[in-house]
Amino acid sequence: MYKILEAKFLAPQVKLLRLEAPAIARRRKAGQFVILRVHETGERIPLTIADSDKESGSITIIVQGVGKTTRLLNEKEAGDSILDVVGPLGMASEVEHFGTAVVIGGGLGTAIAYPTAKALKEAGNHVIVIIGGRSKEFVLLENEMKEFADEVYVTTDDGSYAEKGFVTDRLKGLIEGGRDINYVLAIGPIPMMNAVAGVTKPYGIKTVVSLNPVMVDGTGMCGGCRVLVNGESKFACVDGPEFDAHQVDFRLLSTRNTMYRAAEQSALAEFEQDHDDHECRLMKQADAQQSQPAQA
What we know:
5-stranded antiparallel sheet, Elongation Factor Tu (Ef-tu), domain 3, about 300 residues, Rossmann fold
């Protein structure tokens, strides 16, 4: 069992959980992830390690409640426990002195990009961070990024905060403005990562994306996280999760990511119904207790 030391919401349905996991904290490097299971019959899901602290023996994950298991995780509070946490898994981020590095996070991708952005700064790079969100409330870790990044730009789809537009608009502005960019890391929804790759490819800028397809065992045995890179099959759990953005087959990646959508939606609907039924029972019990005559 892995004890939850801290739990707090960063945005609607986006929660930070700090877990007691000393062995993982000692070995974790930027870009790696864990696979966890909430309870004995639960599914196994991959989550990037957003941060770690060797002294306290803790790791931090950030969860967006979009499916049954992530919604269960978001109900957890400090003092609760998670059954299984396995890691660190995957290859660490490629961190070296590139020169000027642009790190782009879309939505929850900002949390995944955070540890690598920090590591790139520690390696001596001039780090530019571009954060994207649907609206102001979905802009994550802006202040945390500002603590170390040289420049931080924020875009929102609806213009409710900072610049209205997409992360690619700000990236284009930097490139067309003559900035000498040596490296780009983009993490977020598949269409966003694909769009970033399209912006940088004509300029020959080294661009990396972090992929998060369906994973089961995290060892490459199940084949669920297969991706096509430069015409070759790779497994995101052991060969990645980071790959050359200009070589990823995003069309196939998008298709594979929808394979389990019906099953995921069915599980979530069942989960929500069970919760509604449970709340109704609790309300009926409370009403019954209130209607009982007071004991003398």
